[in-house]
């Protein structure tokens, strides 16, 4: 069984969503990390970080303009 | 197609290149030297035009600023990124805006203008850029130690219309320039003041300036162009994609300045600049720290205010009030050198920013 880590980065301004995600990815090492964001800017920034750290990222809309990102490695 | 390119990792470079071309062209068409675009100087001119300070040489309702906000607003609407949000330490962000402006007016320019000055050959800008990097570095130290200003939350949809409406109001006032005040001798004066000489009297045709502002506002909204995020992400995350935007700006602006005969290398005799290395450095250090704590350079704050970010809007209002404070309290520099109270301004600003950095820590994430 693998734990899923959730990072709630909604409402945080730059560069907080990226820093929070980076910390989560580093502590997880591998597995699945979910990140909630509420702007397209944060979505792109977090996905760019994930791909630079060799994590695979997908996203879906959660309504009210928010996004749920799923990062896997 | 162009949208996809702007949103790719090359977007900031394209935006930087367009800023680097348009800014010297705006100088050629009438804007002050090495000041084709300057968010700090132009906000200061707006504060002056509204009579908030009476430095008679720097008063004009710069349409570029309105263009940035409106360009970003339209872009955010078109691409469904209009997200009114508020509540991340608004009063702190307001005063970060105030002191960011105080620092910028000690140096005489925002980060955009620091790079534009350098690309016009003004070597004093090197001290400013070094100071900016130092200020960003201090901000990064706070970020590594858990600094944050808390979450914003979605807010009333109409709240995001305030800054676009404010921008349109500025444009209307530029057009009408009402003069229904009367001075002691009964002559018309105010409420709108336009410089008759000095940098405030120098401007490109208003519709061209507005057009450039709209285009840059749209591009910067799509690409997230940010001159402070550029240094921050480069230092903190080793992510250079915003920094390439600055390099593109520099290359394009040097080329355009040379082509237009506006390139003049040296320290002395540079337009709207002074040669005091220490204060060029310290002014931008204060600014860089304030921008980093607020999460972006002043241009970026304007863009975010156009997307509906109420907190960024308050930062922008802080810039305008900060400009009035800087001139009324003799904090601002002039071409002759730093103002008599630069040290006071710097000390108060640094105490505020360091206090903000130390007092706002702790993880917000679950």
Architecture blueprint of SSEs:
The complex is a heterodimer of chains A (73) and B (366).
Chain A: E1 4-8, H1 16-28, E2 32-37, H2 40-52, E3 56-63, E4 66-72
Parallel strand pairs in A: 1-2
Antiparallel strand pairs in A: 2-4, 3-4
Helix pairs in contact in A: 1-2
Chain B: H1 2-7, H2 11-28, H3 39-49, H4 63-78, E1 85-86, H5 90-107, H6 111-119, H7 124-144, E2 153-154, H8 162-176, E3 181-182, E4 188-189, H9 206-223, H10 227-237, H11 241-259, H12 277-294, H13 298-306, H14 310-328, H15 342-359
Helix pairs in contact in B: 2-9, 2-11, 3-14, 4-8, 4-9, 4-13, 5-12, 5-14, 5-15, 6-7, 6-11, 7-10, 7-12, 10-11, 12-15, 13-14
Name the descriptors.
heterodimer; A: 73 residues; alpha+beta; 4 strands; 36% strand; B: 366 residues; mainly alpha; two-stranded antiparallel sheet; 15 helices; globular
Quick structural gist:
The complex is a heterodimer of chains A (73) and B (366). Chain A is α+β, with helices and mostly antiparallel strands and 73 residues long.
Count of beta strands of chain A: 4
**Mean pLDDT level of chain A:** 92
Averaged pLDDT of chain B: 96
Global geometry of chain A: globular
Ends distance of chain A: 15 Å
Largest sheet of chain B: 2 strands, antiparallel
Strand content of chain A: 35-45%
Instruction: Tell me the number of helical segments of chain A per DSSP (H or I, 4 or more residues long).
Output: 2
**Gross morphology of chain B:** globular
């Amino acid at each position: 069984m693998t734990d899923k880590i959730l990072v709630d980065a909604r409402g945080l301004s730059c560069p907080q969503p990226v820093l929070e995600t980076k910390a989560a990815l580093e502590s997880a090492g591998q597995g699945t990390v979910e990140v909630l964001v509420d702007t397209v800017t944060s979505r792109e920034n977090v996905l760019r970080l994930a791909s630079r750290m060799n994590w695979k990222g997908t996203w879906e809309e959660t309504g009210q303009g928010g996004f749920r990102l799923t990062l896997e490695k | 197609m162009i949208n996809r390119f702007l949103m790719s990792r090359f977007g900031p470079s394209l935006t930087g290149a367009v800023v680097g071309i348009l800014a010297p062209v705006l100088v050629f068409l009438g804007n002050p030297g090495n000041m084709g675009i300057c968010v700090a100087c132009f906000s200061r001119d707006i504060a002056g035009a509204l009579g908030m300070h009476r430095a008679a040489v720097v008063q004009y309702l710069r349409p570029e600023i309105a263009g940035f906000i409106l360009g970003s607003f339209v872009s955010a609407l078109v691409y469904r990124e209009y997200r009114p949000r508020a509540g991340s330490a608004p009063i702190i962000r307001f005063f970060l805006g105030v002191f960011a402006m105080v620092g910028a007016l000690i140096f005489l320019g925002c980060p955009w203008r620091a790079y534009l000055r350098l690309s016009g050959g003004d070597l004093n800008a090197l001290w400013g850029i070094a100071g900016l990097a130092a200020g960003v570095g201090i901000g990064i130290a706070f970020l590594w130690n858990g600094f944050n200003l808390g979450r914003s939350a979605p807010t009333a949809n109409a709240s995001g219309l305030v800054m676009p409406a404010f921008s349109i109001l500025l444009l209307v006032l530029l057009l009408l320039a009402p003069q229904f005040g009367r001075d002691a001798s009964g002559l018309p004066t105010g409420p709108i003041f336009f410089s008759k000489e000095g940098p405030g009297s120098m401007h490109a045709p208003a519709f061209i300036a507005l057009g450039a502002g709209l285009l840059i506002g749209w591009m910067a909204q799509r690409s997230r162009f940010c001159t402070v995020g550029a240094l921050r992400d480069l230092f903190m995350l080793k992510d250079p994609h915003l920094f390439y935007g600055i390099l593109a700006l520099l290359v394009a602006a040097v080329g355009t300045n040379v082509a237009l005969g506006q390139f003049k290398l040296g320290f002395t005799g540079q337009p709207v600049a002074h040669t005091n290395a220490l204060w060029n450095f310290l002014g931008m250090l204060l600014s860089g720290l304030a921008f980093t704590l607020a999460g972006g350079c002043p241009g970026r704050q304007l863009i975010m205010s156009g997307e509906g970010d109420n907190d960024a809007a308050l930062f922008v209002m802080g810039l305008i009030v900060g400009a009035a404070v800087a001139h009324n309290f003799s904090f601002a520099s002039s071409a002759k050198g730093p103002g008599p109270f630069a040290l006071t301004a710097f000390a108060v600003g640094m105490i505020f920013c360091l206090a903000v950095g130390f007092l706002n820590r702790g993880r917000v994430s679950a």
